[in-house]
Amino acid sequence: MLKKDRSKKKSARRWTRFRHKVVTWIIYPGFFLYVLFRFGRAAGLWKGRKRQYLVLMNHQTSGDQFFVALTFGRALYYVATEDIFSNGLVSAFLRFALNPIPINKTAADFRTVITCMKVAKEGGTIVMAPEGNRTYSGRTCSIKPSVVPLVRKLGLPIAFFRIEGGYGVQPRWADRNRGGRVDFGVSRVMEPEEYAGMSDEMLYGEILKELDVDEARPGGPFPSRRSAEYIERVLYTCPVCGLSRLRSSGRTFSCQKCGLTVEYTDTRELRSGSPDFPFRFAADWYDWQERLVSGLAPGDFLSEPVYTDICKVFEVIICKKKVRLTRGAEVSLYGDRITFRAFDSDLRKTLTFDEIRSIAAMGRNKMNVRTGDTIFQFKGDRRFNPVKYMNFYYHYQNVKGGNANVGGDTEFLGL
Asked: b/e map of 265-295 (b: 16 or more CB within 10 Å)?
């Protein structure tokens, strides 16, 4: 009897379960139909799928995990943001059915590494996007060198999974898909024996090379009558008047200060009636926007807010729940802080950039702000832009730490 009890306890400690395989078999046809009709791609099973891997992918759409699932057709253990684990019954179902590996986007999370090692030891295949973010610009986001120690600790074959065309079909800033096709699949397998002989710098370089996707080029077509809709979730500057607010409608978007109007075409290219308009792609605008912020002095934005938004505010209890603090608050961004003032209570708070540990954009129109052990989540309206808060915060930290590259191209601004 004692032996049986010990066996049950040992089984309960396992991360990987047989039921995860069963669930995958049951829902696989649903994945196939979802990807076919939403992303225009019918995919077959990859012939090398039966081995155990560490799958490293670039991150372009909300359906990337389905692309991997279709390719491998087996139980997979995704490293997923902690935000999906704080949604009550939905989160409970995900844990039971697939048991993703949670990661905290607002702090270094050693529990994620420990869990990955546990899953690897139990024979599970791990899927992760080393960017830690879904691209806003169409180019692969920055990848931290810390992925290299994780790869070495796991000691698994690496399956590099490339996704292309996803930014054309479903940009992160958009609500609706447009026509066109997404291509995806395993581009290369790197065996442990191969990377064991590499230096950390060489391995890191190989990871960057294999996951580098640049969609700042003509492609498609990706037809849509609403191709520009909600691009203001990522762009908050104007090449004519600097810091500004944009407003999108259908296929065009305009600067609310100077009236500059731009069309987002079916080939992902930008077109404007202004002869001096300098950008061909949203990525070019995005890069210029970062250079603009890099050239600002935070001290110039202390007395008046740079931007003000209306948001719901929550406190996130990691991997458990979200506690709503207010249904609506005025949120203001300054050069050195974020403030919010609730409309339905006396709640007022100032979060200085010195006390904030990190800011992360979540989904399309949310951001998490971590101070100490507390995580505040701000969810704005459909046009809310979390990128500006993140950019200003990281620029402040770079200036404070002497790491700013004023007017340059290499300053890290959160993505």
From this structure: bbbbbbebeeeebebebbbebbbebbebbbe
